[in-house]
Amino acid sequence: MNETDNNSFDDELMAAAAELITEVTPNRDLWPGIEQAISQPAKPARTVWNSVWAQAAAVLLLVGGSSGVTYLVLTEDLSPLPPVAGGPTLVFEPVSGSFGSMYNLGPGYQDARRSLAAKVDEELSRLAPEERDKVQKSIDVIHTAIEDINKALAAEPDNALLQKLLLSTYRDELGLMMRVDQITSAAMRRGDI
Amino acid sequence: MTAESTAEENGRIRKAQTGDSAAFEALYRMHVDKVYGLCLRMTGNVAEAEDCTQDAFIQAWSKLNNFRGESAFSTWLHRVAVNTVLGRMRKSRREQDRIRVVSDVVSAPETIGDSGGLRDLEQAINELPSGARHVFVLHAVYGYSHDETSAMLGIAAGTSKAQLHRARRLLAQQLKTECA
Fold first, then answer.
1. CB contact under 8 A, B28 and A31
2. DSSP state of A157
3. Residue with the larger pLDDT of the pair A127 and A79
4. Listed residues B103, B120, B145: the one ending a domain
5. Which domain holds residue B82?
6. Within an 8 Å CB–CB cutoff, is residue B144 touching chain A?
7. CB of B34 closer than 8 Å to CB of B78
8. Which chain B residues have a beta carbon less than 8 Å from that of A27?
9. Under an 8 A CB cutoff, do B122 and A27 touch?
10. B21: left (phi over 0), alpha (psi -120 to 50) or beta
11. d(Cα B83, Cα B61) in Å, to the nearest integer?
12. What is the CATH number of the domain that holds B170?
């Protein structure tokens, strides 16, 4: 086939294409689906950035919280721990809504926590008010972190990073309680001497 | 389109822009065949074309306030439909899973031209690679210029010309083979 034939075929092809049907009636009425979609109120856009910001906020919160807790606990002065009479009692209350309904803590953890919390509450009563304030600040930081992560989890229940962060924060809480127990035990031993 | 029907369409557009879904339904009824035809030619799949048509009108509803009348409403709607088709095709690989081809629904004319080599044009277009098919459909079937076609598809005008050349070559090969 020569160039003239090709050109002729091309022209014929384009002419035939221009003749093709451009309007086709659908086999079914598509309006009901459209009507249903446009009558629903628009959902707020949930972009990848929402998730990224939520994760970034949770990471910052956890890193800040953990650093604060570590700093407060490690800078505790172990030597002067005069016995305290009276003053408000510190209690490790469970944070409401922890893990939500989908993230139940196991009974083993709950038992261990209750046992340790009772012991720590007792130990805390031995601390001076200013020492108790420091511990209280640490507790507040951790509890705020738990609450914030729970809020983020409520919006994104399947977010694995947030779930890990929450578990890690609970571990921080346990670590703090154990640390308080060790501090007061050490102080008691020194006092005994 | 007559001046009267254009005025009628403009009135419906204005009403729909204020949230009047009945006016939008009237616009749907006026344009659904054109939009569905385009979706069918671009996707080559009946079910996908139906979904694309619905999505296109839903998109059109949400973007209706962006329509300023700078082009014909049908052209604007075509643009929305093309974007919808491309968006869906990016998300899905369903293009490969064509259940029913266009030729099942749109029967080609008995004979096209006098050579007998273009009888299966519908089928041949449907079997083109998507890039070449989209350009051929918009340019050769719907008559959009290369500038309009490239703007709709988000490609360079040169790419549009290259894809058209490719489409013609592939169609020629296929149709001549079938003829032989």
1. yes
2. T
3. A127
4. B103
5. 1-103
6. no
7. yes
8. 46, 50, 105
9. no
10. alpha
11. 14
12. 1.10.10.10
User: Above 60 in pLDDT, residue A117?
Assistant: yes
**Interface touch B57/A27, C-beta < 8 Å:** no
DSSP state of B94: G
Most A CBs within 10 Å: which of B54, B111, B134, B179, as the mutation test of the A interface? B54
A16 with A58, same domain: the answer is no
Residue pair B81/B137 in contact (Cβ under 8 Å)? The answer is: no
pLDDT, one tens digit per residue, over A98-114 is: 444 445 566 666 777 77
pLDDT tens-digit profile, chain B (180 residues): 677 778 889 999 999 999 999 999 999 999 999 999 999 999 888 999 999 999 999 999 999 999 988 889 999 999 999 999 999 888 765 545 544 445 555 544 443 344 444 457 888 898 899 899 999 999 999 999 999 999 999 999 999 999 999 999 999 888 877 655
Token pair 């309904």 in the structure block, residue: A101
At residue B153, what is the residue type? L
**Which chain A residues have a beta carbon less than 8 Å from that of B142?**
22
C-alpha–C-alpha distance, residues B32 and B54, integer Å: 9
* Domain end among B57, B86, B103: B103
Surface of B (64-93) touching A: CB under 8 A: none
A2 part of contact set with chain B, CB < 8 Å: no
| Length of chain B counted residue by residue | 180
Classify the phi-psi angles of B44: left when phi > 0, otherwise alpha if psi is within -120 to 50, otherwise beta: left
Q: Which of B31, B32, B111 to mutate to test the interface with A (most CBs of A within 10 A)?
A: B32
Domain hosting residue A82, numbered range: 48-192
Q: How far is C-alpha A156 from the chain's CA centre?
A: 9
Phi, psi of A42, deg, nearest 5: -65, 135
Short-list A47, A55, A50, CA closest to A164: A55
Q: What is the pLDDT of residues B149-162, one digit of tens each?
A: 999 999 999 999 99
Question: Nearest CA to CA, how far is A44 from chain B (Å)?
Answer: 14
Backbone angles phi, psi at A115, to 5 degrees: -65, -45
